[in-house]
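Input record (one chain):
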Amino acid sequence: MVDAAEDHLWSSAAARIGRCAAPLWLMLDQWREQWTLKEWLAIRQNETSDREIGVELREATLSGYECGGPSH
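The corresponding structure, as predicted from the sequence alone:
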């Protein structure tokens, strides 16, 4: 597991942010028509938040408590 998508060997994220050259098969022109780098990075940030929420939901489901802890 890696902390960031751009660190994953088979991810296109590093090429999308300009960390490395894009492989020939990666159609960045089409991608750039739909996304700006700023928009894509914002979405990636939200994905991290979604993962954190997922962990909280799983913990709540397994504990029997609602998200946020035991009710009083």
